[in-house]
Amino acid sequence: MKNDAAPVRLFLVDDHPLVRDGLRARLGAMPGLEIVGEAGSAAEALALIETLQPDLLLMDVGMKDMNGIDLAALVLQRHQPAPHVVMLSMYDNPEYVQKALQVGARGYVLKDAPAAEIVAAIEAVSAGGTFLSPAVSKKLFRNQAPRPLLTPRESEILSALGRGESSKQIARDLGLSVRTVEAHRQSIKRRLGIEGQAELIKYAVEHAWEFGQG
């Protein structure tokens, strides 16, 4: 938390007014924190964040007009310097948590967590760290299978395959020869223990988000 500096400027995003009311009640008197605005939809959030330029977003995952994780990705792509993002969710699904962290969120807190946990998340993320609800962290690491080690270039290519791109398209986008892309595809298959092209594409579609922004 900023102590002797300006307060952390917090923006709330949740499509349930009662949740936002509860968050304001919990966090409004928190030292070093100023709630500068709130939104009940992705469209409203995008407009107000542009105007208010908050330091930190506390954002719901399960909104009606846009998934909160997709909204976080959009905000983080559009703004520089980008605000820190803490996701607030009813869901402890490890896949949601991994995706939120991948797009750039710095925290993930469950909605039924004690108020102290939300405060701890805000403090940790505001100080440049990360925070996961203990229940989320325990489930995430209990269920996480070892991830195959791919090079950054192989990760890019796998992500592109997951988006349905051909070797020719990938070569053009990455400035490589088609032959080089094909060599990377063979290397990816060896690392993943995959034999056929169809199996590689299936894996890419199901898992590419783990390796890239696709």
UniProtKB/TrEMBL annotation:
The keyword Phosphoprotein applies. GO terms for biological process: phosphorelay signal transduction system; regulation of DNA-templated transcription. GO terms for molecular function: DNA binding. Signal peptide: none annotated. Residues 9-126 form the Response regulatory domain. The modification 4-aspartylphosphate is found at residue 60. CDD domains: LuxR_C_like, REC_NarL-like. SUPFAM superfamilies: C-terminal effector domain of the bipartite response regulators, CheY-like. Pfam families: GerE, Response_reg. Keywords: DNA-binding, Phosphoprotein, Transcription, Transcription regulation. Residues 143-208 form the HTH luxR-type domain. It comes from the Bacteria. The keyword DNA-binding applies. This is DNA-binding NarL/FixJ family response regulator.
